[in-house]
Protein 1
Amino acid sequence: MDFDIGIIPLPVYILMIILMISFTAINGITKELAMVIAIAATFAFTLGEIGNRLPLLRNIGGGAVLVTFVPSLLGYLGWIPQPMTDSVGEFFKTSKILNLFIAAVIVGSILSMDRSLLIKGFLKIFAPLAAGTVCAGIVGTGVGVLMGIDLHQTFFYIVVPIMAGGVGEGAIPLTIGYSQILGHDQGEMLAKVMPAIMVGNLTAVILAGLLANLGNRLPHLSGNGVLQPGAEDLLGKQPKAEKGCDIRAVAAAAIVAVMLYLVGVLMHDLMKWPAPVVMLFLAVLLMLCHLISPRIQAGSAVVYKFALTAMAFPILFTFSLVLTPWESLIAGFAPANLITIVATVLAMVTGGFFTARFVNLYPVEAAIVTSTHSGMGGAGDIAILTASNRMRLMPFAQIATRIGGGITVAIALILMHLMY
């Protein structure tokens, strides 16, 4: 019982597999929460365990890589029974559990940070992010043209979508704008940009794992999750109360996270502001105004750690199975497109890496945060940070993804409008 597959004790894991086979055989797969948890946890931690044990792959965050993309293939091949896919898919889409997970990670990590590290980190991260974005735009477009892809096609349909901030808040508004300017069907535009987004995210996941491995080999380049030198831990000096943190403090911190998430949703409904960004800045504001007590700080650290340990892999598995079409992913592997996408993401990461020293940040951490600018929104951030074991950088990753993505979309639409 003390040997785990992921977080599942081995005897329980074996029984889970037997139960899944039995329910499938008697057509007993339901859509209740317990069934969804069992399906997602069993598959996710199996793939995670395999990825973390495979030679070479384990050095680049293999668990996160497999959990992020293999479920899409398994669903495409029909190796995951359709009732299981339907059960997990309906829950994922209706519950919006991904948003709640991101809320737990963002709020939990921010509310348990040290205030001075928090404000310094937010101000400094824009430098490597801006440098990486400019490098990606120049290098990606240049490589695409050299590979024989049209300049317009390279920039607007490969480079820009990679940095747009995912699908929901990036690709969709981007392609709506494209369709209005060009008079083309928005669905066609979306299908055109999806391969670049997905393969760009895969590239970022692999590069994040390589960066983490580089940090292990060259410790002076990495803070092991600490963004800037001189900070013991990005999560800050944990309050003494954490040692004796009771369940009421944890529950209270979880409710704070839910409250901030709902405020973000309300602001999105009323003013169309991105909910995760609203939630992020409200959490920062609470910290800066000394409105979070040591008890809530201690509970927030526990909420963050629970979400990271128990929920990250199942969330990635579900996103891959339900919302990552394998056909679109494969379309991005055409040689010219693939080289262009890899060059774009590599240039972005390199720009962030070498700019970090100018603002006194650890190059590995700065590059990893910069790489999330090419992620598939919140799920992409989770995959990238899980692969590099840097989930505590989630608040900064959200800056890169949401704000960086929004700026990228705005600039691209302005440029296209001026050209047409």
Protein 2
Amino acid sequence: MQAWHVHENGAPREVMRPVETEPPEPGAHQVLLKVRAANVNFPDGLMCRGEYQVRPPLPFTPGVEICGETEDGRRVLATPVLPHGGFAEYALADSRALLPAPEALDDAEAAALHIGYQTSWFALHRRAALRAGETLLVHAAAGGVGSAAVQLGKAAGATVIGVVGGPEKAAVARSLGCDVVIDRRSEDVIAAVKEATGGRGADVIYDPVGGEAFRQSTKVVAFEGRIVVIGFASGTIPSAALNHALVKNYAILGLHWGLYNTKNPKLVQHCHEQLTELAAKGAVRPLVSERVPLSGAADAVQRVWEGATTGRVVVVPSLENGAAA
């Protein structure tokens, strides 16, 4: 089969190499899946660089989120068992953690519904308890997890403010349904949020960026507001001033979706059922901006890691032969 291997750590475009290899052999509680579509995630780039909390042994195949096909023809969603990731024709997955692919979505959309949408669902509903009528601020609103948070926020009845970088991403955020869009490159984020909320601030802030975005969040979070820390795409991990959280009465909440797979797998299943229902209603639909063949995986991972994309970039192996995704 065709697969991408990372033999050393570094920038994705430099260290991901195409290889011809045998399909991996399933171990206990594992299943071999034909990869129908593999979504590209920011952690894929971090993993290539050896900077992610999960460090598979070298060589490994990146790709942590797929829509795959079982031997009996079922379409399923899975997080591949590393080192046999999704940027290949076949991947391994835990047979006990397979989720049925929503019928309302094609392969690429289904692959993109899993980690990003589950992350956003847990962040907004499990951690922040977002309520209808509240104001939700989403940093990087045109990105992979940000676009999911925007759609889920709107589906929950919130007013959504999206912060983006550049006019192209601003247009994407508007198309996703943001009520207010702020371009951090040309606008003062703090002033713009205060103006949009009448000085009150945002009830819930979704932050996958860290760094300056987190500092801005602390300035515009409402009384009894909640800042949910998703990740640090900026590369800067901020230090929270707890005295500031005390005097402004706001909460700082962490969200690591992967822990729910081991701590509360039934809740992961419940989340998937909720997302499937929302997809069937048309309330959410992953924004797949690009479908690329397997040969384009290294470039796709590089661009997602650099923050040069909007929505989701999905690797579709069948495109290599000109087939439909």
Protein 3
Amino acid sequence: MNDWLNAVGFGIGLVAFALGLSSIIMGFMSGKKGGEGMQEKIEYGFFGVSGLIVCVLMGYALA
């Protein structure tokens, strides 16, 4: 049963890493200008950093 929990934790960490990294990349690729563009970049940055933090927490939980 412990192996299943490790596999699920690894899967969650992998998905969080992929979504976090892609959110950060999309934040840099935003082409909007002005306040709306800055809001979009902040939102993508927040989700990206949150995803990377979840990935680090899952890695710590598996260690």
Protein 4
Amino acid sequence: MTAITRQLYHSLSHPTPSFLGGWIVAAGFVICWSSGFVGSRLAVAIDTPTLALYAWRFALATLLVGLWWGFRTCRSRRAIYLPSLAHEALIGSLTVGIYLLAMLLAVKAGVSVNVAALIGALQPLAAITLAGWWLGERSVPLQWLGMSVATLGAGVSVLDDFQGMGGAPAWAYGLPVLAVAAVTLGSVMAARRPATLPLEARLTVQLGAATLVFFMAAGYLDAGRVAPPPLSMDTFTTLTWLIVLATFGSYGFFNESLRLFGVGQSAALIALTPAMTLGWTALLFKELPGWLGAAGMLLGLLGAIGALAAKRSTPRAVPSFRPSSSV
């Protein structure tokens, strides 16, 4: 038995708290991140205006985290500057508001949540590409190869969804691409100017900006139907799912993942969310892609993980990306 094998065997048979903690954080991040795509599927299925439901979802989440921020501020009496708030509001509008709005509209138009998750998983790769142009981050050939394979996989899955159960018009598949562009732009903007506000302040402002985006979208795209959703078990279940898992769960596990693993490995975990979303939809909705869609997802996962692993092996780190909650 080699030294590496003995070390691996010892780690598996005598796990330390940090070993178990790392697995819990990684699993929690992937589960909560993918839960947002399933939440959008649940929201579309219930009999209530979806955009208004999302607007009130973010309003409730903003209220909860705002109370936390107010409590922490009263204790610390830390000064908050208006330019920092405006910067976080812009970041939140892009990485939460427009990103989730475009994804939700895609699902409403018939794009399957599996394909939406796969296209969304290209965001770290898009951030690497934009950062290379904007922030001067260098790319390596293996990274470009992985990105090409991931993009090919997304295209194959879109073709399968377009021909199969999705039934969405061709233009609807541009919405997840728009979502990726929005969250990528916001993430790179965040990387150019490191955050100065505490976590609870950033989350409150970002969720507040998303609330405004969805109320405006409901007023413009949904005939002004912005009334609170009716109280029912389906509404309560969907709101609880979206707020607890998709908002606070994904954001909390994402920040803990950054602390434990760093940006590169956290980005690689996002590449695992399409497979988890596929598991969610198979379990809850009995939906599975065809063989072409499965092949596309496999290509997307292999390409994304390969590209991120290639970037991680270079001397310079992957640029910071700041996705908030999933859909």
